Amino acid sequence: MSRPQDPHRPSFPFGNPFRMIMPKGSYLSPKLTELLNSFEESLAQRLRMLMPADREEILSLLWMKRAVESLSAIHTDIKTLITGLELPVSDWDEKWIDVYLDNSVKLLDICIAFSSELSRLSQGHLFLQCALHNLDCASSKQFVRACSSLDGWRQHIGSKNPRMENCFSILDNLIKTLNLPKIKNSSKGKVLMRAMYGVKVVTVFVCNVFAAAFSGSAEKLLDLQVEEIRLWAEAFAGLQGFVNGEIRSIYSSGKATVLKELEAVDANVKKLYPIVQEGVGEEAEAYKNSVSDLGKRAEKLSQGLDLLAKEVDGFFQIVLSGRDALLCNLRVGTNVTDQLQEKKNVEVR
What we know:
DH200=94 genomic scaffold, scaffold_1151; disordered C terminus
């Protein structure tokens, strides 16, 4: 299939204004430059919107939900760019297709792991509900049951999900493909690969932050380096530095989790537990307030987990639909090629 030819290279008496867009020796037509700039500026804006207003916002479930929303929007943006490039799948290099399909499978696996962890954390809400039910009654028997439920919650939350460890190995493999494949003799291909590079970097960053948050350790938190020529590089560096720095600070202080809503519930449980164990006594007012706070925080945690789980599922569907669309186009392209070949064979006879 023939592809439209880019216009001849124009002459710029004051230097080439597109030189900063692509590395030296590369050339993009004004139309391709506009498409690439539009994509990268949109990516930069999405990153700036993810910058937390303060430290308390980092790793709140609301911020995590916004992060997944941004990933969904960015992956939708790349589909729009591909349409604008008018680069049919039949013109894609096999290397591009192989890398895309391989990466999409890895992303789906990561989404499944995150959904598993969110479901596990949500199950802990049952322990809190049982505890709150028993704390409504001021009998020693009910207090014993409440203590048992609180113990159960802390053990459940403190357990490890083996799927999280697998996430880090998947992310390591994704990082190895960040700069692949190399493109030759295709302006549209270079635009596509440069845009996909941005998508992959931001996706790896967000997924790595989530994995570190869910695993309870900053040991495998990554610091990705991006060339300054990218229009989104400054926004990315600022966001990554701020978020990663705060996560490392939280874990170095000895806290078991960086998830704000989970930390709030845990702090409340630690405060309430000794009061229940020793008997309310003179601390009736503090006890009443603690029970009320636990109920509110537990509900906020539960709702936040549900909303984030729905957003992760939505991102899963976007990645899956993109993969399915590519496979469908490949099959259509193969069928067309086969039909043309059959026609040629008939004509030869």
